[in-house]
Protein backbone atom coordinates (compact mmCIF):
# COMPACT_ATOMS: atom_id res chain seq x y z
CA UNK A 1 0.00 0.00 0.00
CA UNK A 2 2.79 2.38 0.94
CA UNK A 3 4.78 1.38 -2.11
CA UNK A 4 1.77 2.03 -4.28
CA UNK A 5 1.37 5.51 -2.83
CA UNK A 6 5.05 6.16 -3.30
CA UNK A 7 4.85 5.12 -6.93
CA UNK A 8 1.78 7.30 -7.45
CA UNK A 9 3.74 10.26 -6.08
CA UNK A 10 6.64 9.54 -8.43
CA UNK A 11 4.33 9.25 -11.43
CA UNK A 12 2.63 12.54 -10.64
CA UNK A 13 6.00 14.25 -10.27
CA UNK A 14 7.17 12.68 -13.54
CA UNK A 15 4.17 14.17 -15.31
CA UNK A 16 5.57 17.62 -14.66
CA UNK A 17 9.29 16.94 -15.05
CA UNK A 18 10.54 15.03 -18.06
CA UNK A 19 13.82 14.17 -16.38
CA UNK A 20 11.95 12.41 -13.58
CA UNK A 21 9.85 10.67 -16.22
CA UNK A 22 13.01 9.36 -17.89
CA UNK A 23 14.25 8.10 -14.52
CA UNK A 24 10.96 6.39 -13.85
CA UNK A 25 11.07 4.64 -17.21
CA UNK A 26 14.62 3.45 -16.53
CA UNK A 27 13.71 2.21 -13.04
CA UNK A 28 10.70 0.32 -14.32
CA UNK A 29 12.48 -1.20 -17.29
CA UNK A 30 12.28 -4.72 -15.75
CA UNK A 31 8.50 -4.32 -15.46
CA UNK A 32 8.25 -3.03 -19.03
CA UNK A 33 10.40 -5.93 -20.23
CA UNK A 34 8.25 -8.47 -18.43
CA UNK A 35 5.06 -7.01 -19.90
CA UNK A 36 6.62 -7.12 -23.36
CA UNK A 37 7.76 -10.70 -22.77
CA UNK A 38 4.18 -11.64 -21.86
CA UNK A 39 3.08 -10.30 -25.23
CA UNK A 40 5.93 -11.68 -27.32
CA UNK A 41 6.19 -15.01 -25.59
CA UNK A 42 9.94 -14.49 -25.23
CA UNK A 43 12.08 -11.96 -23.48
CA UNK A 44 12.80 -8.88 -25.61
CA UNK A 45 16.30 -7.66 -26.32
CA UNK A 46 17.14 -4.04 -25.91
CA UNK A 47 18.29 -2.44 -29.12
CA UNK A 48 16.94 -5.27 -31.26
CA UNK A 49 13.27 -5.64 -30.59
CA UNK A 50 11.19 -2.66 -31.59
CA UNK A 51 8.48 -3.99 -29.29
CA UNK A 52 10.50 -2.95 -26.26
CA UNK A 53 10.74 0.60 -27.58
CA UNK A 54 6.99 0.60 -28.16
CA UNK A 55 6.37 -0.73 -24.64
CA UNK A 56 8.58 1.98 -23.13
CA UNK A 57 6.67 4.57 -25.12
CA UNK A 58 3.38 3.14 -23.87
CA UNK A 59 4.64 3.20 -20.30
CA UNK A 60 5.49 6.87 -20.73
CA UNK A 61 2.05 7.52 -22.17
CA UNK A 62 0.53 5.88 -19.10
CA UNK A 63 2.63 8.18 -16.90
CA UNK A 64 1.28 11.21 -18.75
CA UNK A 65 -2.30 9.96 -18.57
CA UNK A 66 -2.24 8.84 -14.96
CA UNK A 67 -4.83 10.25 -12.62
CA UNK A 68 -4.69 9.27 -8.97
CA UNK A 69 -8.47 9.25 -8.62
CA UNK A 70 -8.77 6.51 -11.21
CA UNK A 71 -6.89 3.78 -9.40
CA UNK A 72 -3.45 2.25 -9.28
CA UNK A 73 -0.76 3.03 -11.84
CA UNK A 74 0.66 -0.43 -12.54
CA UNK A 75 -2.52 -1.93 -14.03
CA UNK A 76 -2.92 1.21 -16.14
CA UNK A 77 0.64 0.91 -17.43
CA UNK A 78 0.16 -2.80 -18.16
CA UNK A 79 -3.01 -2.09 -20.17
CA UNK A 80 -1.37 0.76 -22.03
CA UNK A 81 1.64 -1.42 -22.95
CA UNK A 82 -0.53 -4.29 -24.14
CA UNK A 83 -2.75 -2.01 -26.26
CA UNK A 84 0.21 -0.29 -27.91
CA UNK A 85 1.89 -3.59 -28.65
CA UNK A 86 -1.31 -4.80 -30.32
CA UNK A 87 -1.44 -1.58 -32.36
CA UNK A 88 2.15 -2.03 -33.33
CA UNK A 89 1.64 -5.67 -34.31
CA UNK A 90 -1.26 -4.69 -36.57
CA UNK A 91 0.81 -2.00 -38.16
CA UNK A 92 3.70 -4.38 -38.76
CA UNK A 93 1.44 -6.99 -40.32
CA UNK A 94 0.82 -4.57 -43.15
CA UNK A 95 4.52 -4.76 -43.97
CA UNK A 96 4.77 -8.48 -43.36
CA UNK A 97 6.06 -9.19 -46.84
CA UNK A 98 8.96 -6.81 -46.42
CA UNK A 99 12.24 -8.44 -45.43
CA UNK A 100 14.16 -7.07 -42.54
CA UNK A 101 17.72 -6.08 -43.30
CA UNK A 102 18.67 -7.37 -39.89
CA UNK A 103 17.32 -10.83 -40.65
CA UNK A 104 19.87 -13.63 -40.68
CA UNK A 105 20.11 -15.69 -43.78
CA UNK A 106 22.16 -18.78 -44.19
CA UNK A 107 23.30 -19.58 -47.64
CA UNK A 108 24.31 -23.08 -48.57
CA UNK A 109 27.86 -22.22 -49.44
CA UNK A 110 28.35 -19.87 -46.56
CA UNK A 111 28.91 -21.40 -43.19
CA UNK A 112 28.39 -18.44 -40.90
CA UNK A 113 25.08 -16.65 -40.78
CA UNK A 114 25.14 -13.05 -41.87
CA UNK A 115 22.42 -10.51 -41.89
CA UNK A 116 21.15 -9.27 -45.22
CA UNK A 117 22.42 -5.78 -44.62
CA UNK A 118 25.91 -7.12 -44.35
CA UNK A 119 25.72 -8.91 -47.68
CA UNK A 120 24.54 -5.88 -49.63
CA UNK A 121 27.16 -3.60 -51.00
CA UNK A 122 26.52 -0.20 -49.49
CA UNK A 123 26.29 2.72 -51.84
CA UNK A 124 25.73 5.20 -49.11
CA UNK A 125 28.22 7.86 -48.31
CA UNK A 126 28.62 6.90 -44.68
CA UNK A 127 31.23 9.47 -43.85
CA UNK A 128 29.21 12.26 -45.39
CA UNK A 129 26.14 11.07 -43.59
CA UNK A 130 27.91 11.05 -40.28
CA UNK A 131 29.13 14.58 -40.86
CA UNK A 132 25.65 15.78 -41.74
CA UNK A 133 24.28 14.15 -38.65
CA UNK A 134 26.94 15.77 -36.52
CA UNK A 135 26.11 19.16 -38.01
CA UNK A 136 22.40 18.71 -37.45
CA UNK A 137 23.03 17.69 -33.88
CA UNK A 138 24.95 20.90 -33.23
CA UNK A 139 22.25 22.96 -34.87
CA UNK A 140 19.51 21.29 -32.91
CA UNK A 141 21.40 21.87 -29.66
CA UNK A 142 21.67 25.53 -30.59
CA UNK A 143 17.97 25.63 -31.43
CA UNK A 144 17.03 24.06 -28.09
CA UNK A 145 19.21 26.61 -26.30
CA UNK A 146 17.44 29.46 -28.13
CA UNK A 147 14.09 27.97 -27.24
CA UNK A 148 15.01 27.88 -23.58
CA UNK A 149 15.61 31.66 -23.78
CA UNK A 150 11.90 31.86 -24.50
CA UNK A 151 11.22 29.52 -21.59
CA UNK A 152 10.30 26.67 -23.90
CA UNK A 153 11.35 23.06 -24.32
CA UNK A 154 10.84 20.87 -27.35
CA UNK A 155 8.35 18.81 -25.35
CA UNK A 156 6.29 21.96 -24.68
CA UNK A 157 6.34 22.71 -28.37
CA UNK A 158 5.32 19.18 -29.35
CA UNK A 159 2.41 19.30 -26.94
CA UNK A 160 1.34 22.64 -28.38
CA UNK A 161 1.66 21.39 -31.93
CA UNK A 162 -1.59 21.57 -33.94
CA UNK A 163 -3.16 18.14 -34.16
CA UNK A 164 -5.88 18.80 -36.70
CA UNK A 165 -5.11 19.15 -40.35
CA UNK A 166 -7.09 22.39 -40.58
CA UNK A 167 -5.28 24.02 -37.68
CA UNK A 168 -1.92 22.91 -39.02
CA UNK A 169 -2.76 24.50 -42.37
CA UNK A 170 -3.77 27.73 -40.61
CA UNK A 171 -0.49 27.77 -38.70
CA UNK A 172 1.39 27.21 -41.92
CA UNK A 173 -0.32 30.23 -43.44
CA UNK A 174 0.87 32.25 -40.47
CA UNK A 175 4.41 30.97 -40.94
CA UNK A 176 4.38 31.73 -44.66
CA UNK A 177 3.27 35.26 -43.95
CA UNK A 178 5.96 35.66 -41.31
CA UNK A 179 8.66 34.49 -43.71
CA UNK A 180 7.70 37.24 -46.12
CA UNK A 181 7.81 39.87 -43.40
CA UNK A 182 11.29 39.65 -41.88
CA UNK A 183 10.58 42.54 -39.52
CA UNK A 184 8.17 40.33 -37.62
CA UNK A 185 10.90 37.76 -37.06
CA UNK A 186 13.22 40.46 -35.86
CA UNK A 187 10.62 41.74 -33.47
CA UNK A 188 10.17 38.26 -32.07
CA UNK A 189 13.92 37.94 -31.56
CA UNK A 190 14.20 41.32 -29.90
CA UNK A 191 11.16 41.39 -27.64
CA UNK A 192 10.70 37.68 -27.11
CA UNK A 193 7.02 38.18 -27.83
CA UNK A 194 4.91 36.85 -30.63
CA UNK A 195 3.43 39.74 -32.67
CA UNK A 196 -0.04 38.18 -32.61
CA UNK A 197 -2.00 41.14 -33.96
CA UNK A 198 0.24 41.64 -37.01
CA UNK A 199 0.33 37.93 -37.76
CA UNK A 200 -3.45 37.67 -37.55
CA UNK A 201 -3.97 40.71 -39.75
CA UNK A 202 -1.37 39.64 -42.30
CA UNK A 203 -2.28 35.98 -42.65
CA UNK A 204 -6.02 36.20 -42.17
CA UNK A 205 -5.90 33.53 -39.51
CA UNK A 206 -8.04 34.02 -36.43
CA UNK A 207 -6.30 35.60 -33.52
CA UNK A 208 -7.66 32.90 -31.24
CA UNK A 209 -5.95 30.17 -33.24
CA UNK A 210 -2.64 31.99 -33.07
CA UNK A 211 -2.99 32.53 -29.33
CA UNK A 212 -3.76 28.87 -28.79
CA UNK A 213 -0.66 27.70 -30.65
CA UNK A 214 1.60 30.46 -29.47
CA UNK A 215 4.39 28.18 -28.26
CA UNK A 216 4.45 26.16 -31.44
CA UNK A 217 4.52 29.28 -33.59
CA UNK A 218 7.33 30.82 -31.58
CA UNK A 219 9.43 27.69 -32.15
CA UNK A 220 8.61 27.51 -35.84
CA UNK A 221 9.36 31.20 -36.40
CA UNK A 222 12.58 30.80 -34.51
CA UNK A 223 13.56 28.05 -36.92
CA UNK A 224 13.18 30.54 -39.73
CA UNK A 225 15.65 33.00 -38.26
CA UNK A 226 19.27 32.88 -39.32
CA UNK A 227 21.48 30.05 -38.30
CA UNK A 228 19.16 27.11 -38.60
CA UNK A 229 19.75 26.10 -42.19
CA UNK A 230 19.37 22.36 -41.65
CA UNK A 231 16.11 22.62 -39.76
CA UNK A 232 14.79 25.15 -42.22
CA UNK A 233 15.86 22.92 -45.06
CA UNK A 234 13.96 20.10 -43.46
CA UNK A 235 10.77 22.15 -43.28
CA UNK A 236 10.53 22.29 -47.04
CA UNK A 237 6.83 21.58 -47.14
CA UNK A 238 5.87 24.64 -45.15
CA UNK A 239 7.32 27.15 -47.52
CA UNK A 240 6.67 26.83 -51.22
CA UNK A 241 9.90 26.27 -53.13
CA UNK A 242 11.55 29.54 -54.00
CA UNK A 243 8.83 31.53 -52.32
CA UNK A 244 10.40 34.53 -50.64
CA UNK A 245 13.49 32.79 -49.36
CA UNK A 246 15.56 34.92 -47.14
CA UNK B 1 7.96 12.26 -45.65
CA UNK B 2 11.16 12.35 -43.65
CA UNK B 3 11.53 13.06 -39.99
CA UNK B 4 14.34 14.85 -38.24
CA UNK B 5 15.08 13.54 -34.76
CA UNK B 6 15.21 16.58 -32.48
CA UNK B 7 15.36 15.09 -29.01
CA UNK B 8 15.80 11.63 -27.57
CA UNK B 9 14.55 10.16 -24.31
CA UNK B 10 14.55 6.55 -23.15
CA UNK B 11 10.86 6.18 -23.88
CA UNK B 12 10.30 8.52 -26.79
CA UNK B 13 11.87 10.77 -29.38
CA UNK B 14 10.67 14.11 -30.65
CA UNK B 15 10.73 14.22 -34.42
CA UNK B 16 10.07 17.10 -36.76
CA UNK B 17 8.34 16.28 -39.99
CA UNK B 18 8.62 18.31 -43.17
CA UNK B 19 5.41 20.19 -42.53
CA UNK B 20 6.62 21.52 -39.24
CA UNK B 21 4.83 19.13 -36.94
CA UNK B 22 6.80 18.15 -33.88
CA UNK B 23 5.64 14.71 -32.75
CA UNK B 24 6.45 12.35 -29.91
CA UNK B 25 7.16 8.88 -31.24
CA UNK B 26 8.57 5.66 -29.75
CA UNK B 27 12.33 5.78 -29.64
CA UNK B 28 13.49 2.73 -31.55
CA UNK B 29 17.17 3.41 -31.06
CA UNK B 30 17.29 6.82 -32.70
CA UNK B 31 19.79 9.59 -32.09
CA UNK B 32 19.53 13.34 -32.38
CA UNK B 33 20.18 14.71 -35.85
CA UNK B 34 19.22 11.49 -37.59
CA UNK B 35 16.80 11.68 -40.50
CA UNK B 36 14.17 8.95 -40.56
CA UNK B 37 12.01 7.75 -43.39
CA UNK B 38 9.44 6.15 -41.15
CA UNK B 39 8.35 6.47 -37.57
CA UNK B 40 5.69 4.70 -35.56
CA UNK B 41 2.80 7.10 -35.12
CA UNK B 42 -0.27 5.94 -33.29
CA UNK B 43 -3.46 7.47 -34.57
CA UNK B 44 -5.39 7.94 -31.37
CA UNK B 45 -3.86 9.86 -28.54
CA UNK B 46 -4.01 7.39 -25.70
CA UNK B 47 -6.08 4.31 -26.11
CA UNK B 48 -7.73 3.61 -22.81
CA UNK B 49 -8.27 6.95 -21.25
CA UNK B 50 -10.20 9.07 -23.69
CA UNK B 51 -13.48 7.96 -22.16
CA UNK B 52 -12.59 9.80 -18.99
CA UNK B 53 -14.34 13.16 -19.44
CA UNK B 54 -17.53 11.43 -20.49
CA UNK B 55 -17.33 9.31 -17.36
CA UNK B 56 -16.90 12.43 -15.29
CA UNK B 57 -19.93 14.00 -16.88
CA UNK B 58 -21.93 10.84 -16.32
CA UNK B 59 -20.94 10.73 -12.68
CA UNK B 60 -22.06 14.31 -12.28
CA UNK B 61 -25.36 13.51 -13.98
CA UNK B 62 -25.91 10.52 -11.71
CA UNK B 63 -25.12 12.64 -8.68
CA UNK B 64 -27.56 15.28 -9.86
CA UNK B 65 -30.28 12.71 -10.43
CA UNK B 66 -29.64 11.19 -7.03
CA UNK B 67 -29.89 14.62 -5.45
CA UNK B 68 -33.15 15.28 -7.28
CA UNK B 69 -34.52 11.91 -6.14
CA UNK B 70 -33.47 12.67 -2.60
CA UNK B 71 -35.13 16.06 -2.77
CA UNK B 72 -38.34 14.55 -4.13
CA UNK B 73 -38.30 11.85 -1.49
CA UNK B 74 -37.67 14.43 1.18
CA UNK B 75 -40.43 16.76 0.02
CA UNK B 76 -42.78 13.83 -0.55
CA UNK B 77 -41.94 12.39 2.83
CA UNK B 78 -42.52 15.73 4.48
CA UNK B 79 -45.88 16.13 2.74
CA UNK B 80 -46.82 12.62 3.80
CA UNK B 81 -45.74 13.42 7.33
CA UNK B 82 -47.64 16.69 7.42
CA UNK B 83 -50.90 15.29 6.08
CA UNK B 84 -53.23 14.38 8.95
CA UNK B 85 -54.86 11.01 8.60
CA UNK B 86 -57.43 11.99 11.19
CA UNK B 87 -58.32 14.20 14.10
CA UNK B 88 -58.67 13.26 17.74
CA UNK B 89 -61.06 15.44 19.68
CA UNK B 90 -60.50 15.34 23.39
CA UNK B 91 -62.93 17.00 25.61
CA UNK B 92 -62.40 17.29 29.32
CA UNK B 93 -64.07 20.49 29.66
CA UNK B 94 -61.41 22.21 27.75
CA UNK B 95 -61.87 20.92 24.27
CA UNK B 96 -58.91 20.29 22.04
CA UNK B 97 -58.47 18.94 18.57
CA UNK B 98 -55.37 16.94 17.77
CA UNK B 99 -54.32 16.39 14.14
CA UNK B 100 -52.55 13.09 13.74
CA UNK B 101 -50.59 11.88 10.70
CA UNK B 102 -50.34 8.33 9.44
CA UNK B 103 -47.35 7.65 11.66
CA UNK B 104 -49.49 8.38 14.74
CA UNK B 105 -47.57 11.57 15.30
CA UNK B 106 -49.20 14.85 16.23
CA UNK B 107 -48.85 17.55 13.57
CA UNK B 108 -51.44 20.00 14.84
CA UNK B 109 -53.11 20.95 18.10
CA UNK B 110 -55.83 23.49 18.67
CA UNK B 111 -58.00 24.55 21.56
CA UNK B 112 -61.65 24.43 20.56
CA UNK B 113 -63.01 26.58 23.37
CA UNK B 114 -61.40 29.16 25.64
CA UNK B 115 -60.38 26.62 28.23
CA UNK B 116 -58.98 24.46 25.51
CA UNK B 117 -56.92 27.33 24.12
CA UNK B 118 -55.60 28.00 27.58
CA UNK B 119 -54.77 24.35 28.05
CA UNK B 120 -52.68 24.05 24.90
CA UNK B 121 -50.93 27.36 25.30
CA UNK B 122 -47.17 26.81 25.33
CA UNK B 123 -47.58 23.09 25.02
CA UNK B 124 -44.99 21.38 22.84
CA UNK B 125 -46.65 18.70 20.79
CA UNK B 126 -45.17 18.61 17.32
CA UNK B 127 -43.88 15.21 16.23
CA UNK B 128 -44.78 13.43 19.46
CA UNK B 129 -47.02 10.38 19.52
CA UNK B 130 -50.71 10.99 19.98
CA UNK B 131 -50.69 8.75 23.09
CA UNK B 132 -48.03 10.86 24.76
CA UNK B 133 -49.76 14.09 23.86
CA UNK B 134 -53.14 12.97 25.15
CA UNK B 135 -51.55 11.74 28.40
CA UNK B 136 -49.76 15.03 28.89
CA UNK B 137 -52.86 17.03 28.09
CA UNK B 138 -54.79 15.07 30.68
CA UNK B 139 -52.03 15.73 33.20
CA UNK B 140 -52.08 19.40 32.36
CA UNK B 141 -55.84 19.52 32.71
CA UNK B 142 -55.52 17.85 36.08
CA UNK B 143 -52.83 20.32 37.10
CA UNK B 144 -54.88 23.29 36.00
CA UNK B 145 -57.91 22.04 37.91
CA UNK B 146 -60.11 21.07 35.00
CA UNK B 147 -60.05 17.43 35.85
CA UNK B 148 -60.89 16.02 39.27
CA UNK B 149 -61.12 12.55 40.62
CA UNK B 150 -64.07 10.83 39.04
CA UNK B 151 -64.08 13.34 36.24
CA UNK B 152 -64.72 12.47 32.66
CA UNK B 153 -62.80 12.63 29.44
CA UNK B 154 -64.49 12.21 26.14
CA UNK B 155 -62.53 10.96 23.20
CA UNK B 156 -63.72 11.04 19.62
CA UNK B 157 -61.76 10.27 16.53
CA UNK B 158 -62.61 11.40 13.05
CA UNK B 159 -60.99 9.89 10.05
CA UNK B 160 -61.74 8.51 6.62
CA UNK B 161 -59.73 5.47 7.55
CA UNK B 162 -62.27 3.40 9.48
CA UNK B 163 -59.70 0.88 10.74
CA UNK B 164 -57.37 3.53 12.03
CA UNK B 165 -60.24 5.40 13.63
CA UNK B 166 -61.43 2.43 15.67
CA UNK B 167 -57.93 1.33 16.60
CA UNK B 168 -56.88 4.79 17.73
CA UNK B 169 -60.06 5.36 19.67
CA UNK B 170 -59.69 2.05 21.51
CA UNK B 171 -56.06 2.58 22.18
CA UNK B 172 -56.43 6.11 23.49
CA UNK B 173 -59.24 5.19 25.85
CA UNK B 174 -57.19 2.43 27.42
CA UNK B 175 -54.05 4.52 27.38
CA UNK B 176 -55.66 7.40 29.24
CA UNK B 177 -57.36 5.18 31.79
CA UNK B 178 -54.14 3.37 32.58
CA UNK B 179 -52.18 6.59 32.63
CA UNK B 180 -54.57 8.29 35.00
CA UNK B 181 -54.75 5.21 37.18
CA UNK B 182 -58.48 4.87 36.61
CA UNK B 183 -59.19 8.00 38.61
CA UNK B 184 -61.27 9.39 35.83
CA UNK B 185 -63.70 7.98 33.37
CA UNK B 186 -62.72 7.90 29.78
CA UNK B 187 -65.49 7.54 27.30
CA UNK B 188 -65.91 7.61 23.62
CA UNK B 189 -68.07 10.38 22.43
CA UNK B 190 -70.76 7.92 21.34
CA UNK B 191 -71.24 7.01 24.99
CA UNK B 192 -69.34 3.76 25.11
CA UNK B 193 -66.39 3.63 27.43
CA UNK B 194 -63.48 1.35 27.95
CA UNK B 195 -63.18 0.42 24.40
CA UNK B 196 -60.94 -2.46 25.24
CA UNK B 197 -63.91 -4.75 25.70
CA UNK B 198 -66.60 -3.97 23.25
CA UNK B 199 -68.54 -7.09 24.29
CA UNK B 200 -69.22 -5.71 27.70
CA UNK B 201 -72.76 -4.41 27.94
CA UNK B 202 -72.81 -0.68 27.90
CA UNK B 203 -74.83 -0.66 31.10
CA UNK B 204 -71.67 -1.58 32.92
CA UNK B 205 -69.67 0.94 31.05
CA UNK B 206 -69.48 3.45 33.81
CA UNK B 207 -67.69 1.16 36.21
CA UNK B 208 -64.70 3.20 37.29
CA UNK B 209 -62.38 0.25 37.55
CA UNK B 210 -62.65 -1.99 34.59
CA UNK B 211 -61.97 -5.65 35.13
CA UNK B 212 -59.50 -7.29 32.85
CA UNK B 213 -62.09 -8.88 30.67
CA UNK B 214 -60.02 -10.98 28.45
CA UNK B 215 -58.83 -13.21 31.26
CA UNK B 216 -58.09 -16.91 30.88
CA UNK B 217 -60.95 -19.30 31.41
CA UNK B 218 -61.84 -19.50 35.03
CA UNK B 219 -64.78 -18.84 37.20
CA UNK B 220 -65.48 -15.40 35.94
CA UNK B 221 -67.45 -14.36 38.95
CA UNK B 222 -70.41 -13.06 37.18
CA UNK B 223 -73.86 -14.37 37.65
CA UNK B 224 -75.19 -14.63 34.23
CA UNK B 225 -73.09 -17.54 33.21
CA UNK B 226 -72.52 -16.19 29.84
CA UNK B 227 -69.98 -18.85 29.11
CA UNK B 228 -67.11 -16.88 27.92
CA UNK B 229 -64.94 -19.42 29.40
CA UNK B 230 -66.46 -22.71 28.48
CA UNK B 231 -68.28 -24.38 25.75
CA UNK B 232 -70.42 -27.06 27.22
CA UNK B 233 -71.17 -26.25 30.75
CA UNK B 234 -74.37 -24.40 30.36
CA UNK B 235 -76.19 -25.89 33.21
CA UNK B 236 -76.71 -22.64 34.98
CA UNK B 237 -74.10 -22.80 37.64
CA UNK B 238 -70.43 -22.48 37.72
CA UNK B 239 -69.74 -25.56 39.67
CA UNK B 240 -66.91 -27.75 38.86
CA UNK B 241 -68.96 -30.48 37.37
CA UNK B 242 -66.59 -33.25 37.19
CA UNK B 243 -64.47 -32.31 40.10
CA UNK B 244 -61.33 -31.87 38.15
CA UNK B 245 -60.85 -28.24 38.95
CA UNK B 246 -61.55 -27.32 35.38
CA UNK B 247 -64.73 -25.43 34.85
CA UNK B 248 -67.04 -26.35 32.05
CA UNK B 249 -66.23 -28.81 29.38
CA UNK B 250 -67.92 -32.04 30.17
CA UNK B 251 -65.33 -34.01 28.42
CA UNK B 252 -62.24 -32.31 29.54
CA UNK B 253 -60.19 -35.36 30.27
CA UNK B 254 -56.79 -34.08 29.48
CA UNK B 255 -55.07 -35.49 32.42
CA UNK B 256 -57.40 -37.74 34.29
CA UNK B 257 -59.55 -40.62 33.55
CA UNK B 258 -61.41 -41.15 36.73
CA UNK B 259 -65.00 -40.60 35.86
CA UNK B 260 -65.63 -41.15 32.28
CA UNK B 261 -65.28 -44.05 30.06
CA UNK B 262 -64.92 -42.61 26.70
CA UNK B 263 -62.08 -43.81 24.63
CA UNK B 264 -59.88 -40.80 24.76
CA UNK B 265 -56.70 -42.63 25.52
CA UNK B 266 -54.18 -39.92 25.32
CA UNK B 267 -52.07 -41.00 28.16
CA UNK B 268 -53.84 -43.84 29.78
CA UNK B 269 -55.48 -47.06 29.09
CA UNK B 270 -58.72 -47.92 30.67
CA UNK B 271 -60.08 -50.62 28.48
CA UNK B 272 -58.73 -53.35 30.59
CA UNK B 273 -56.63 -55.12 28.10
CA UNK B 274 -52.92 -55.62 28.23
CA UNK B 275 -51.88 -54.25 25.04
CA UNK B 276 -50.41 -51.00 26.11
CA UNK B 277 -46.78 -50.60 26.77
CA UNK B 278 -46.63 -47.17 28.21
CA UNK B 279 -48.47 -44.57 30.14
CA UNK B 280 -50.38 -45.38 33.22
CA UNK B 281 -52.65 -48.26 33.70
CA UNK B 282 -55.57 -47.64 35.88
CA UNK B 283 -57.46 -50.85 35.55
CA UNK B 284 -56.07 -52.08 38.82
CA UNK B 285 -54.22 -55.15 37.70
CA UNK B 286 -50.52 -55.61 37.33
CA UNK B 287 -50.50 -57.21 34.02
CA UNK B 288 -49.02 -54.51 32.00
CA UNK B 289 -45.48 -54.83 31.00
Order of helices and strands of chain B: EEEEHEEEHHEHEEE
Mean pLDDT of chain A: 82
Strand order within the widest sheet of chain B?
Answer: 7-6-5-8-9
Question: In one word, what is the shape of chain B?
Answer: rod-shaped
What coarse outline of chain A follows from CA principal-axis ratios? globular
Low-confidence segments of chain B, given as residue ranges, are 47-52, 191-223, 229-236, 238-245, 247-253, 255-265, 267-289
N→C terminal distance of chain B: 115 Å
Residue share in helix of chain B = 10-25%
What is the total tally of β strands of chain A? Answer: 2
Of all chain pairs, the largest interface belongs to:
A-B, 57 and 34 residues
Report the count of strand segments of chain B.
11
Strand content of chain B: 15-25%
Q: Which strand order does the major sheet of chain A show?
A: 1-2
What's the gyration radius of chain A in Å? 23 Å
Helix and strand content put the structural class of chain B at alpha+beta
Note poorly predicted spans of chain A: 240-246
Helix content, binned percent of chain A: 55-70%
Offer a few descriptive terms.
heterodimer, A: 246 residues, mainly alpha, two-stranded antiparallel ribbon, 14 helices, globular, B: 289 residues, alpha+beta, five-stranded mixed sheet, four-stranded antiparallel sheet, 11 strands, 19% strand, disordered C terminus
Descriptive account of the structure:
The complex is a heterodimer of chains A (246) and B (289). Chain A has 246 residues and is mainly α. Chain A is 67% helix and 2% strand. Chain A has helices spanning 2-16, 18-27, 29-40, 50-65, 73-93, 116-119, 126-149, 154-160, 165-180, 182-191, 196-203, 207-212, 214-223, 229-234; strands spanning 104-105, 114-115. In chain A, strands 1-2 form a two-stranded antiparallel ribbon. Chain A is globular, with a radius of gyration of 23 Å. Residues 240-246 of chain A have low confidence and may be disordered. The model of chain B is unreliable at 47-52, 191-223, 229-236, 238-245, 247-253, 255-265 and 267-289 (pLDDT under 50). The longest helix of chain B is centred in the first third of the chain and has 31 residues, at 52-82. Chain B is α+β, with helices and mostly antiparallel strands. The radius of gyration of chain B is 43 Å and the shape is rod-shaped. In chain B, 20% of the residues are buried. Chain B has helices at residues 52-82, 114-120, 130-143, 162-179; strands spanning 3-8, 12-17, 22-26, 35-36, 84-91, 95-101, 106-111, 152-159, 185-188, 268-269, 280-281. The chains are: A mainly alpha (246), B alpha+beta (289). At the A-B interface, helix 2, helix 4, helix 5, helix 7 and helix 8 of A face strand 1, strand 2 and strand 3 of B.
Amino acid sequence: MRRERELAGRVLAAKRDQRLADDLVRDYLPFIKSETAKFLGRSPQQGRDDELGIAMFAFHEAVMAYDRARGAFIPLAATSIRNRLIDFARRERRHADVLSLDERRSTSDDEDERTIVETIASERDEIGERQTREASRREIAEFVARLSDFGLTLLDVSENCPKQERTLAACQRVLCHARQAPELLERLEKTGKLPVAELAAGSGVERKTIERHRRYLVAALLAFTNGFEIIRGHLRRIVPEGGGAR
Amino acid sequence: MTYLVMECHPAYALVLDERGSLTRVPNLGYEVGQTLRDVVVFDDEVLTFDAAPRKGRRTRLVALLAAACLCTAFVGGFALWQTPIGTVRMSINPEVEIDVNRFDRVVGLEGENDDGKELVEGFVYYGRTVDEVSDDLADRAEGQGYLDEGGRIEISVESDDEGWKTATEDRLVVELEVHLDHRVVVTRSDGASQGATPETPSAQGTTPTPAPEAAPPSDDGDDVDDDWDDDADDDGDDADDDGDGWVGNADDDWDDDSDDDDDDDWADDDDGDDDDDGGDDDDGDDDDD
